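I hope you will forgive my troubling you with a question about protein structure. You will find the record immediately after this paragraph.
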Amino acid sequence: MVEGLANHWLTHFPELQALQGPAWQDTLLQTKLVTIPAGVTLYRSGDACESFVMVLRGSIRVQIISESGNEVVLYRVEDGQSCILTTTCLVAQDQYHAEGITETEVTAVVIPASVFQNAITQSEGFRTFVFSSYGQRLTDLFMLIDAITFGRMDIRLANTLLTMGEKNREIHITHYDLARELGTAREVVSRLLKDFERKHWVQLRRGVITVNDPTALSSFANKSH
């Protein structure tokens, strides 16, 4: 659903608030504010990139499907962020090599591809914003790859449970979805969770993981580094 755009959205991106110049003003005039329901696939592998998206509220999950059929979450695009894969596709004029799905209702600012290309060429401030955001998200992605490649899965699982259970110890998530978060098989996660349960660190119910002993989980994760 496309709504009328007021530039109050710039408060979500302070770096853009002070930008001036005709190229940037023209970009603002052609920018759209959209609201997208949860569960919508925004793009799939092989799709052409049609716009640059900056999320104001909500979450977009970016994932790939492994050769074994497992879904691996690469990252999320959340409040005040843009998508590193979209930036790559637009700059390289390439296709998507992953898929993006709205996890919640998303409110976002959308800049058409042709307008983005003109803005990144003509507006130094916008170009700096785009590549600064790109560099930061790329660093996060490298950290994820490092964790998947070299990190022990039991430590990564403990840290993930601590993060997810930080506000509410009762985590509503399936073993399959947790495995997707960690980039591994469901069977691996289920085996490790059973081990955690035997140690009384967690309690398992269908679709729910309760963190009983966050102190023990944290101690395990820290001692194992």
In short: The first strand starts at residue 2 and ends at 3. The chain has nine helices and twelve strands.
